[in-house]
Amino acid sequence: MLLGDTLVEAKLTEATFTESEKAHVLRYSAVGKVFSLDDLPGSPSHFAGYQLIRNVLAAEQHGLRLRVLIDWRRPDLLQEWWAVHSAITSADLRRRCGVVFWQQIASALPKPQAAYLEARYGL
């Protein structure tokens, strides 16, 4: 999702940020410039955090910011985000990319929307 100058990757019910075969990810021409490939999480054949990698590449290509929305009860997603974030080679791009918790959003919403998130997702 694009909000102004910010790409948003929101995870609320999905289990992971998915993974992809390294050969597939390496087809993105800028991936080796944007990331330290040896530092990206994954296995010998796959990169973890594929959706995050794609979003960081899009933020770089278009000069945008990126915010990842996650539930703070999911430290696994936060760890996956920081593993991808720490592999970004550009300090400027690292500064433009960050995380926001659903609980922060819920606390700033009007009561009806906050109540919906509380009832539906326990936020």
Beta-strand segment tally? 6
Strand content: 15-25%
| Unreliable runs | none
SSE order:
EEEHHEHEHHEHH
Strand order within the widest sheet?
A: 1-2-5-6
Question: Helix count, per DSSP?
Answer: 7
Q: Main sheet, how many strands, which sense, barrel?
A: 4 strands, mixed
Q: Helix/strand-derived class? A: alpha/beta
Give the N-to-C terminal Cα separation. Answer: 21 Å
Mean pLDDT across all residues, rounded?
94
Q: Given the C-alpha coordinates, what overall shape results?
A: globular
Which percent bin holds the helix content? 40-55%
Q: Give the count of structural domains.
A: 1
Q: What value does the Rg take, in angstroms?
A: 15 Å
State the gist of this model:
The chain is built from seven helices and six strands; from the N terminus they run E-E-E-H-H-E-H-E-H-H-E-H-H. The two termini are about 20 Å apart.
List keywords for this structure.
two-stranded antiparallel sheet, alpha/beta, 46% helix, globular, single chain
Explain this structure to me?
With 123 residues, the protein is of the alpha/beta class. It has one domain (2-121). Helices cover 46% and strands 20% of the residues. It has seven helices and six strands. It has helices spanning 22-25, 31-34, 50-62, 75-85, 91-96, 102-108, 111-121; strands spanning 2-3, 6-10, 19-21, 46-48, 65-70, 97-101. The protein has a four-stranded mixed beta sheet. Strand 1 and strand 2 (6-10) form a beta hairpin. The longest helix is centred in the middle third of the chain and has 13 residues, at 50-62. The mean pLDDT is 94.
